[in-house]
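Researcher: Structure prediction, please.
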Amino acid sequence: PGNGVYDPHDIYRDENHNKQYDIGEYYVDCPLEDFQYKPGDVIGQSTNYNRQWRHSVQEVPGYFIKVDNTVPFYLVKVSIPYKFYLDYVVRVWNRDGLINIPVPPEGSYAVISVIPEGTLNNGVLTFSSETFQRHYNTSVSQGYFLDHDFQVTGPIPPLPSMPGTSSDTTPDSDSDEKQTPGFETLIFLIACILILYRLKKKKT
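Model: Predicted structure follows.
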């Protein structure tokens, strides 16, 4: 971890586009020393899909939608008019009634659609990046952009297993450590058998 304050080497989001860090802007508090592995550090697979609670969207002040349900995940689609190849979808987590939304900067003219995942609903939320950026100061002051009722009906998907629980499926767990060597051994044996088979076939 860093020292709790912004330093020149930290990464920040330039909200007002003045090419410098200003107090209140989101930043990543990087370590004071170089990023390097130390004995005892846990190295996991960032792409491990079993850990559903993981997410890749950085939380920025004000970049939230307030909801009144317990749907664990939402799908956020970002569409760029006339540039379909730039469209993308991210999966975000409902954290105590707030869902983080990745909104492109002003001038992108993107359309953002938010959908509760795995539920029946009648309240899909759609708004533009320009509208969001115009009301950004208000969003920061109140903590979220909009308070939206997705009109969710029917059963709500269960919460995924979280870190530290008995059902946690992190790749550094005991079960994964036991499974990995066995799998690697099996691949090695199959490779050896194929090599022996080819050598025997050449001799004949």
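Model: The chain is about 20% helix and 20% strand.
Researcher: Thanks, that helps.
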